[in-house]
Amino acid sequence: MLVEETQAPEGAAEWVACLTYKSVATATPRASDIDLLASKARARNRSLDVTGMLLFEDGCFLQTLEGPPEAVGAVWSSIQRDERHDHIEVLSEHMAAARLFSDWNLLLEGRFADSGDNHAKTAKAPPAVAEHVTRLVELALNADDLALNTMMAGFSEQGWTSDAILTLLIEPAARALGDAWLDDQCSELDLTIGLSMLQMAGHAVRYIPSPQSIRNSCYRVLLATAPGEKHMLGTTLLADQFLAGGWQVDMAFPDSEEALTNQMNAQHPDAVDIGLSDAMPRQHAIDSLRETIEHSRLIVSEHPTVVSVGGRLFAEAAATALSVGADHARKGLAGTSVRLAELVRQSRAG
Ligand SMILES: Cc1cc2nc3c(=O)[nH]c(=O)nc-3n(C[C@H](O)[C@H](O)[C@H](O)COP(=O)(O)O)c2cc1C
Predict the structure, then answer these.
(1) In 52-70, which positions are buried (b, 16+ CB within 10 angstroms) versus exposed (e)?
(2) Would you say the CB of residue 84 lies under 6 angstroms from ligand 1?
(3) Which residue has the higher pLDDT, 30 or 87?
(4) Of 13, 131, 219, 289, whose CB count within 10 A is highest?
(5) Measuring from atom 25 of ligand 1, which residue has the nearest CA?
(6) Which among 75, 89, 101 is the best mutation to test ligand 1's pocket, defined by most ligand atoms within 8 Å of the CB?
(7) Ligand 1 centre and the CA of 305: distance in Å?
């Protein structure tokens, strides 16, 4: 897996491996079970210099681990073998220039309900993250930009990084909006307005310090929506991340494959990210995306372009990336510029 195999980029001695996964508890734990799990985990993580957070909600765990790659790898091996949970699904794994959770060895959900107290009280705490997502969806559907901005400012004051806000709040909110549309609970116009509101909220958190705020690249990336794709949430939020990472960024919202390949032909980017909707699954887009990627590979250039794909389709089934012939699929927005820089470096070296 990536956190064990990936070398930190050159000149980045302090880089940490960062892994986020979700899983399902095999039995409903009591508060005392969670307390015990957390205190043992905290002690081991502390001894290994691993930081992160663990949430337990509605029978599911969500955990981020970060630290030296070999330490994260060791803890991760134990966690994968643990029979207290199954259906383990990795949401993101990458090297990062700074920790998201530098102050805690393990941060339980209770912190959000009662900041300043890190003790394990997950089972008693309100379902903070799910409630935040629900509230975010509500505000986005009502186009309440004032309340959205206040909410984002509140999270950054509580210490949430922009990566955490993207991974834990904005992307799940986009998928919830898609589900609301699929269940006829909102109109297509509502969905479009909701997504642009999330886009605005995502831009509002871009100045929060995050690993991507360290300028580390001079590569050129083309951030494009898939030909004909109307939803551009991920593509526009990635622009902030790549710009902060020192990339030269071009954007494309092509209505045809030809428009996209023409732009690639003119610009010869080091990497291209082609984004499908973050709200809708877009299964039907697989064949045409495969063709687009095949055709983009025919463009003659000194260095081949690293092709990345993203959107709800890939967030929920990363293996689909293989079937469209991409080099990389993002499971989420966080860390994309770091991973693509690694891939571009590898393609130059090899
Ligand atoms: C959802 C979940 C999260 C866990 N998180 C950690 C953790 O962050 N650190 C840790 O040392 N153990 C954690 N554990 C416990 C490990 O799975 C394992 O029991 C413990 O590290 C002992 O490792 P060993 O079985 O390899 O001796 C977690 C277990 C579960 C079910």
Answers:
(1) bbbbbbeeebbbbbbbbbe
(2) yes
(3) 87
(4) 289
(5) 78
(6) 75
(7) 40
Domain boundaries, the chain: 2-123, 129-204, 215-349
Count of residues in the chain: 350
First-to-final CA distance of the chain: 20
- Interaxial angle between packed helices 188-204 and 128-141, expressed in degrees from 0 to 180 and rounded to the nearest 10: 120
Does the domain at residues 2-123 carry the CATH identifier 3.30.70.100?
yes
Confidence of residue 2 (pLDDT cuts 50, 70, 90): very low
pLDDT one-digit tens code per residue, 244-301:
778 899 999 999 999 999 999 999 999 999 999 999 999 999 999 999 999 999 988 7
- The CATH superfamily assigned to 215-349 is Cobalamin-binding domain (3.40.50.280)
Identical fold at 2-123 and 129-204?
Answer: no
Residue 203 is predicted with a pLDDT of 81
71 CB near ligand 1 (under 6 Å): no
Give residue 128 CA to ligand 1 midpoint distance, Å. Answer: 23
